[in-house]
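Side project, low priority. Logging it here so it doesn't get lost.
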Amino acid sequence: MFTRRGVLAGAVAGTMAVAASLPAFAQDKIKIGAVLAVTGPASFLGDPEAKTLKMMVEEINKKGGLLGKQIDLIVYDSGGDAAKAKQFATRLIEEDKVVAQVGGSTTGDTMAMIPVFEDAKVPFISLAGAVVIIDPVKKFVFKTPHTDKMACQKIFEDMKKRGLTKVGMISGQDAFGKSMQDECKKVVAGYGIEIIAEETYGPRDTDMTPQLTNIKNKAGLQAVLNPGFGQGPAIVTRNYRQLGISVPLYQSHGVGSKGFIQAAGDAANGVRLPAAALLVADKLPDNDPQKKVVVGYTKAFADYAKQPVSTFGGHAYDGLNILVEAIKRAGSTNGQKVRDEIEKTKSFIGTGGIVNMSAKDHLGLDLSAFRMLEIKNGDWTLVQ
Protein backbone atom coordinates (compact mmCIF):
# COMPACT_ATOMS: atom_id res chain seq x y z
CA MET A 1 0.00 0.00 0.00
CA PHE A 2 1.28 3.41 -0.94
CA THR A 3 0.69 6.21 1.57
CA ARG A 4 1.26 9.51 -0.17
CA ARG A 5 1.26 11.80 2.81
CA GLY A 6 1.87 15.48 2.36
CA VAL A 7 2.04 15.57 -1.44
CA LEU A 8 -0.64 18.21 -1.23
CA ALA A 9 0.25 20.51 1.64
CA GLY A 10 -3.36 21.06 2.64
CA ALA A 11 -3.97 17.33 2.98
CA VAL A 12 -1.12 16.57 5.38
CA ALA A 13 -3.04 16.92 8.64
CA GLY A 14 -5.96 14.87 7.38
CA THR A 15 -3.75 12.11 6.08
CA MET A 16 -1.84 11.92 9.35
CA ALA A 17 -5.13 11.61 11.23
CA VAL A 18 -6.15 8.70 9.01
CA ALA A 19 -2.78 7.03 9.58
CA ALA A 20 -3.19 7.37 13.35
CA SER A 21 -6.54 5.58 13.20
CA LEU A 22 -5.27 2.53 11.32
CA PRO A 23 -5.43 -0.80 13.15
CA ALA A 24 -2.29 -2.09 14.82
CA PHE A 25 -1.49 -4.63 12.09
CA ALA A 26 -1.29 -1.81 9.53
CA GLN A 27 1.60 -0.29 11.47
CA ASP A 28 3.69 -3.45 11.05
CA LYS A 29 5.23 -2.22 7.83
CA ILE A 30 8.59 -1.00 6.66
CA LYS A 31 8.28 2.77 6.52
CA ILE A 32 10.40 4.59 3.95
CA GLY A 33 10.28 8.36 3.67
CA ALA A 34 10.66 10.73 0.74
CA VAL A 35 10.69 14.52 0.94
CA LEU A 36 10.42 15.71 -2.66
CA ALA A 37 9.70 18.89 -4.60
CA VAL A 38 6.53 17.46 -6.15
CA THR A 39 5.13 20.95 -6.80
CA GLY A 40 6.74 24.34 -7.29
CA PRO A 41 9.64 25.43 -9.50
CA ALA A 42 11.55 22.15 -9.00
CA SER A 43 8.53 19.91 -9.72
CA PHE A 44 10.26 18.67 -12.89
CA LEU A 45 12.54 16.87 -10.42
CA GLY A 46 10.14 15.82 -7.68
CA ASP A 47 7.16 14.77 -9.79
CA PRO A 48 8.92 11.95 -11.71
CA GLU A 49 10.77 10.97 -8.53
CA ALA A 50 7.51 10.57 -6.59
CA LYS A 51 5.84 8.67 -9.42
CA THR A 52 8.84 6.36 -9.75
CA LEU A 53 8.90 5.56 -6.04
CA LYS A 54 5.15 4.92 -6.02
CA MET A 55 5.44 2.64 -9.05
CA MET A 56 8.27 0.66 -7.51
CA VAL A 57 6.68 0.28 -4.08
CA GLU A 58 3.43 -0.93 -5.61
CA GLU A 59 5.37 -3.55 -7.58
CA ILE A 60 7.45 -4.67 -4.59
CA ASN A 61 4.36 -4.98 -2.41
CA LYS A 62 2.53 -7.00 -5.07
CA LYS A 63 5.41 -9.48 -4.98
CA GLY A 64 5.23 -9.94 -1.22
CA GLY A 65 7.00 -6.86 0.06
CA LEU A 66 10.38 -6.59 1.77
CA LEU A 67 11.53 -8.97 4.51
CA GLY A 68 7.99 -10.35 4.45
CA LYS A 69 6.45 -6.94 5.16
CA GLN A 70 4.71 -4.37 3.01
CA ILE A 71 6.50 -1.08 2.37
CA ASP A 72 4.72 2.06 3.53
CA LEU A 73 6.05 4.92 1.40
CA ILE A 74 5.54 8.28 3.09
CA VAL A 75 5.95 11.23 0.72
CA TYR A 76 5.98 14.90 1.73
CA ASP A 77 6.05 17.76 -0.77
CA SER A 78 8.60 20.44 0.12
CA GLY A 79 7.74 22.57 -2.92
CA GLY A 80 11.49 23.12 -3.16
CA ASP A 81 11.49 25.04 0.16
CA ALA A 82 14.48 24.01 2.29
CA ALA A 83 12.83 25.06 5.54
CA LYS A 84 9.79 22.90 4.80
CA ALA A 85 12.05 20.03 3.79
CA LYS A 86 13.75 20.13 7.19
CA GLN A 87 10.38 20.20 8.99
CA PHE A 88 9.18 17.18 7.02
CA ALA A 89 12.45 15.34 7.65
CA THR A 90 11.95 15.86 11.38
CA ARG A 91 8.39 14.55 11.08
CA LEU A 92 9.60 11.47 9.22
CA ILE A 93 12.01 10.70 12.05
CA GLU A 94 10.03 11.69 15.12
CA GLU A 95 6.44 10.85 14.13
CA ASP A 96 6.52 8.45 11.19
CA LYS A 97 9.52 6.47 12.46
CA VAL A 98 10.91 5.75 8.99
CA VAL A 99 13.81 3.35 8.60
CA ALA A 100 15.36 5.35 5.74
CA GLN A 101 14.72 8.12 3.26
CA VAL A 102 15.08 8.20 -0.52
CA GLY A 103 14.52 11.84 -1.35
CA GLY A 104 15.71 15.38 -1.44
CA SER A 105 15.05 16.64 -4.97
CA THR A 106 17.26 19.70 -4.71
CA THR A 107 20.63 20.46 -3.17
CA GLY A 108 19.06 23.10 -0.91
CA ASP A 109 16.46 20.68 0.45
CA THR A 110 19.05 17.94 0.91
CA MET A 111 21.56 20.09 2.79
CA ALA A 112 18.80 21.27 5.15
CA MET A 113 17.77 17.67 5.91
CA ILE A 114 21.20 16.09 6.36
CA PRO A 115 21.62 17.04 10.06
CA VAL A 116 18.23 15.50 10.89
CA PHE A 117 19.11 12.09 9.44
CA GLU A 118 22.71 12.16 10.65
CA ASP A 119 21.60 12.91 14.22
CA ALA A 120 18.96 10.17 14.09
CA LYS A 121 21.39 7.68 12.49
CA VAL A 122 18.87 6.92 9.74
CA PRO A 123 20.14 6.25 6.18
CA PHE A 124 19.40 9.04 3.70
CA ILE A 125 19.87 8.54 -0.06
CA SER A 126 19.67 11.95 -1.72
CA LEU A 127 18.48 12.55 -5.28
CA ALA A 128 20.20 15.93 -5.64
CA GLY A 129 23.28 16.88 -7.63
CA ALA A 130 25.87 18.89 -5.72
CA VAL A 131 29.10 17.24 -4.62
CA VAL A 132 28.88 18.91 -1.18
CA ILE A 133 26.20 16.36 -0.28
CA ILE A 134 28.76 13.55 -0.06
CA ASP A 135 32.08 15.41 0.04
CA PRO A 136 33.13 15.38 2.78
CA VAL A 137 31.55 11.99 3.51
CA LYS A 138 28.70 11.98 6.03
CA LYS A 139 28.20 8.62 7.70
CA PHE A 140 24.48 8.11 6.95
CA VAL A 141 24.19 10.16 3.73
CA PHE A 142 24.48 8.80 0.18
CA LYS A 143 23.36 10.01 -3.23
CA THR A 144 22.58 8.62 -6.69
CA PRO A 145 22.95 11.51 -9.21
CA HIS A 146 26.28 12.37 -10.81
CA THR A 147 27.87 15.34 -9.06
CA ASP A 148 28.25 18.87 -10.34
CA LYS A 149 32.03 18.42 -10.17
CA MET A 150 31.76 15.42 -12.49
CA ALA A 151 29.59 17.46 -14.87
CA CYS A 152 32.26 20.16 -15.03
CA GLN A 153 34.93 17.57 -15.75
CA LYS A 154 32.90 15.87 -18.48
CA ILE A 155 32.10 19.18 -20.15
CA PHE A 156 35.67 20.45 -20.04
CA GLU A 157 36.86 17.09 -21.36
CA ASP A 158 34.57 17.54 -24.38
CA MET A 159 35.62 21.17 -24.86
CA LYS A 160 39.28 20.14 -24.82
CA LYS A 161 38.63 17.54 -27.53
CA ARG A 162 37.04 20.27 -29.65
CA GLY A 163 39.92 22.70 -29.09
CA LEU A 164 37.77 25.18 -27.12
CA THR A 165 39.95 27.03 -24.62
CA LYS A 166 38.27 30.41 -23.98
CA VAL A 167 34.97 30.01 -22.17
CA GLY A 168 32.22 32.22 -20.78
CA MET A 169 30.12 31.03 -17.83
CA ILE A 170 26.64 32.15 -16.82
CA SER A 171 25.51 30.47 -13.61
CA GLY A 172 22.23 30.14 -11.76
CA GLN A 173 22.39 31.25 -8.14
CA ASP A 174 20.30 28.48 -6.65
CA ALA A 175 22.18 26.03 -4.42
CA PHE A 176 23.01 23.70 -7.32
CA GLY A 177 24.04 26.49 -9.68
CA LYS A 178 26.32 28.08 -7.11
CA SER A 179 27.92 24.77 -6.25
CA MET A 180 28.57 23.82 -9.87
CA GLN A 181 29.92 27.30 -10.59
CA ASP A 182 32.45 26.85 -7.79
CA GLU A 183 33.36 23.30 -8.81
CA CYS A 184 33.94 24.29 -12.44
CA LYS A 185 36.26 27.08 -11.39
CA LYS A 186 38.24 24.63 -9.25
CA VAL A 187 38.92 22.13 -12.06
CA VAL A 188 38.96 24.23 -15.26
CA ALA A 189 42.69 24.97 -15.30
CA GLY A 190 43.49 21.26 -15.40
CA TYR A 191 42.01 21.10 -18.91
CA GLY A 192 43.95 24.07 -20.30
CA ILE A 193 40.75 26.13 -20.43
CA GLU A 194 40.32 29.70 -19.26
CA ILE A 195 37.06 31.31 -18.07
CA ILE A 196 37.22 34.74 -19.72
CA ALA A 197 33.72 35.98 -18.82
CA GLU A 198 31.50 35.22 -15.85
CA GLU A 199 27.88 36.23 -15.20
CA THR A 200 25.08 35.07 -12.89
CA TYR A 201 21.28 35.17 -12.69
CA GLY A 202 18.70 34.68 -9.95
CA PRO A 203 16.10 31.89 -9.67
CA ARG A 204 13.27 34.27 -10.61
CA ASP A 205 14.99 36.12 -13.46
CA THR A 206 13.10 35.96 -16.76
CA ASP A 207 15.58 37.63 -19.12
CA MET A 208 19.32 36.93 -19.23
CA THR A 209 19.97 39.08 -22.33
CA PRO A 210 22.15 41.69 -20.51
CA GLN A 211 24.44 39.03 -19.01
CA LEU A 212 24.68 37.12 -22.28
CA THR A 213 25.43 40.32 -24.19
CA ASN A 214 28.40 40.93 -21.88
CA ILE A 215 29.65 37.41 -22.57
CA LYS A 216 29.06 37.72 -26.32
CA ASN A 217 31.18 40.87 -26.49
CA LYS A 218 34.17 39.24 -24.82
CA ALA A 219 37.02 38.96 -27.32
CA GLY A 220 38.17 35.43 -28.09
CA LEU A 221 35.04 33.68 -26.77
CA GLN A 222 34.84 30.05 -28.00
CA ALA A 223 32.10 28.45 -25.88
CA VAL A 224 29.63 29.15 -23.07
CA LEU A 225 28.72 26.99 -20.07
CA ASN A 226 25.51 27.39 -18.03
CA PRO A 227 25.54 25.70 -14.59
CA GLY A 228 21.93 25.61 -13.40
CA PHE A 229 18.56 23.87 -13.38
CA GLY A 230 14.89 24.78 -13.49
CA GLN A 231 13.53 27.47 -15.82
CA GLY A 232 16.81 29.43 -15.92
CA PRO A 233 18.71 27.26 -18.45
CA ALA A 234 15.74 27.28 -20.87
CA ILE A 235 15.62 31.09 -20.71
CA VAL A 236 19.38 31.31 -21.18
CA THR A 237 19.14 29.03 -24.20
CA ARG A 238 16.35 31.05 -25.85
CA ASN A 239 18.11 34.36 -25.17
CA TYR A 240 21.36 32.87 -26.46
CA ARG A 241 19.83 32.12 -29.86
CA GLN A 242 17.99 35.45 -29.96
CA LEU A 243 21.32 37.25 -29.58
CA GLY A 244 22.80 35.22 -32.41
CA ILE A 245 25.66 33.83 -30.32
CA SER A 246 27.28 31.27 -32.58
CA VAL A 247 29.77 29.51 -30.30
CA PRO A 248 28.79 26.17 -28.67
CA LEU A 249 26.50 26.26 -25.62
CA TYR A 250 26.84 23.66 -22.84
CA GLN A 251 24.28 22.95 -20.14
CA SER A 252 24.54 20.84 -16.99
CA HIS A 253 22.94 17.48 -16.25
CA GLY A 254 20.34 19.55 -14.39
CA VAL A 255 18.40 19.89 -17.65
CA GLY A 256 18.15 16.15 -18.32
CA SER A 257 14.45 15.98 -19.19
CA LYS A 258 12.27 16.57 -22.23
CA GLY A 259 10.80 19.46 -20.26
CA PHE A 260 13.95 21.48 -20.97
CA ILE A 261 13.74 20.80 -24.71
CA GLN A 262 10.08 21.76 -24.75
CA ALA A 263 10.72 24.96 -22.78
CA ALA A 264 13.70 26.02 -24.90
CA GLY A 265 12.08 25.03 -28.21
CA ASP A 266 14.17 25.05 -31.37
CA ALA A 267 16.84 27.03 -29.49
CA ALA A 268 17.80 23.80 -27.69
CA ASN A 269 19.17 22.26 -30.88
CA GLY A 270 22.96 22.17 -30.74
CA VAL A 271 23.15 22.31 -26.94
CA ARG A 272 25.52 19.77 -25.39
CA LEU A 273 25.30 18.34 -21.87
CA PRO A 274 26.55 15.40 -19.81
CA ALA A 275 23.74 13.01 -18.87
CA ALA A 276 22.88 9.48 -17.83
CA ALA A 277 22.48 6.69 -20.37
CA LEU A 278 18.78 6.70 -19.50
CA LEU A 279 18.07 9.59 -21.88
CA VAL A 280 19.38 7.62 -24.85
CA ALA A 281 18.27 4.15 -23.80
CA ASP A 282 17.12 3.11 -27.28
CA LYS A 283 20.32 4.42 -28.87
CA LEU A 284 22.74 2.39 -26.74
CA PRO A 285 24.52 -0.58 -28.34
CA ASP A 286 23.10 -3.95 -27.34
CA ASN A 287 26.28 -4.88 -25.46
CA ASP A 288 26.10 -1.82 -23.19
CA PRO A 289 25.73 -3.18 -19.61
CA GLN A 290 23.16 -0.51 -18.76
CA LYS A 291 20.90 -1.06 -21.75
CA LYS A 292 18.60 -3.68 -20.23
CA VAL A 293 18.10 -1.60 -17.08
CA VAL A 294 17.45 1.75 -18.76
CA VAL A 295 15.20 0.31 -21.46
CA GLY A 296 13.21 -1.58 -18.82
CA TYR A 297 12.77 1.46 -16.58
CA THR A 298 11.92 3.71 -19.54
CA LYS A 299 9.08 1.42 -20.61
CA ALA A 300 7.78 0.80 -17.10
CA PHE A 301 7.71 4.52 -16.24
CA ALA A 302 6.10 5.56 -19.53
CA ASP A 303 3.38 2.91 -19.10
CA TYR A 304 2.78 3.89 -15.47
CA ALA A 305 3.08 7.69 -15.54
CA LYS A 306 2.03 8.37 -19.15
CA GLN A 307 4.89 10.82 -19.57
CA PRO A 308 8.44 10.74 -20.96
CA VAL A 309 11.23 9.45 -18.78
CA SER A 310 13.76 11.84 -17.23
CA THR A 311 17.06 11.30 -15.47
CA PHE A 312 15.46 12.53 -12.26
CA GLY A 313 13.01 9.67 -11.93
CA GLY A 314 15.96 7.43 -12.69
CA HIS A 315 17.77 8.77 -9.64
CA ALA A 316 14.82 7.67 -7.49
CA TYR A 317 14.77 4.26 -9.20
CA ASP A 318 18.44 3.74 -8.38
CA GLY A 319 18.08 5.04 -4.84
CA LEU A 320 15.20 2.78 -3.85
CA ASN A 321 16.78 -0.26 -5.48
CA ILE A 322 20.05 0.35 -3.62
CA LEU A 323 18.16 0.74 -0.35
CA VAL A 324 15.98 -2.35 -0.85
CA GLU A 325 18.97 -4.52 -1.71
CA ALA A 326 20.84 -3.21 1.34
CA ILE A 327 17.91 -4.05 3.62
CA LYS A 328 17.74 -7.55 2.13
CA ARG A 329 21.46 -8.11 2.71
CA ALA A 330 21.20 -6.75 6.25
CA GLY A 331 18.15 -8.92 6.93
CA SER A 332 17.05 -6.03 9.09
CA THR A 333 15.87 -2.41 9.07
CA ASN A 334 18.35 -1.41 11.77
CA GLY A 335 19.80 1.94 10.69
CA GLN A 336 23.44 1.07 11.31
CA LYS A 337 23.21 -2.31 9.58
CA VAL A 338 21.40 -0.86 6.55
CA ARG A 339 23.90 2.01 6.36
CA ASP A 340 26.75 -0.46 6.35
CA GLU A 341 25.20 -2.47 3.53
CA ILE A 342 24.50 0.62 1.40
CA GLU A 343 28.17 1.51 1.74
CA LYS A 344 29.08 -1.98 0.53
CA THR A 345 27.09 -1.60 -2.70
CA LYS A 346 29.20 -3.02 -5.55
CA SER A 347 28.58 -3.54 -9.27
CA PHE A 348 25.01 -2.24 -9.01
CA ILE A 349 23.83 -1.44 -12.54
CA GLY A 350 21.44 1.49 -12.37
CA THR A 351 20.06 4.15 -14.66
CA GLY A 352 22.88 6.48 -13.65
CA GLY A 353 25.74 4.06 -14.17
CA ILE A 354 27.51 1.18 -12.44
CA VAL A 355 27.72 1.93 -8.72
CA ASN A 356 30.64 0.90 -6.51
CA MET A 357 30.46 2.60 -3.12
CA SER A 358 32.99 2.57 -0.30
CA ALA A 359 33.67 4.20 3.04
CA LYS A 360 35.30 7.08 1.16
CA ASP A 361 32.77 7.30 -1.69
CA HIS A 362 29.03 7.51 -0.96
CA LEU A 363 28.16 7.97 -4.64
CA GLY A 364 30.11 5.21 -6.33
CA LEU A 365 30.11 6.58 -9.90
CA ASP A 366 33.01 7.72 -12.08
CA LEU A 367 33.09 9.81 -15.26
CA SER A 368 32.35 6.77 -17.40
CA ALA A 369 28.80 6.91 -16.02
CA PHE A 370 28.23 10.19 -17.88
CA ARG A 371 27.39 10.26 -21.60
CA MET A 372 27.94 13.43 -23.61
CA LEU A 373 24.74 14.28 -25.46
CA GLU A 374 23.78 16.84 -28.08
CA ILE A 375 20.22 17.92 -28.81
CA LYS A 376 19.34 17.54 -32.48
CA ASN A 377 15.90 17.98 -34.03
CA GLY A 378 14.37 18.22 -30.58
CA ASP A 379 15.81 14.93 -29.31
CA TRP A 380 18.83 13.56 -27.46
CA THR A 381 21.72 12.15 -29.50
CA LEU A 382 24.97 10.55 -28.36
CA VAL A 383 28.15 12.48 -29.09
CA GLN A 384 30.65 10.01 -30.54
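Brief comment: The chain has two domains: 2-146+294-366, 148-275.
Revisit when time allows.
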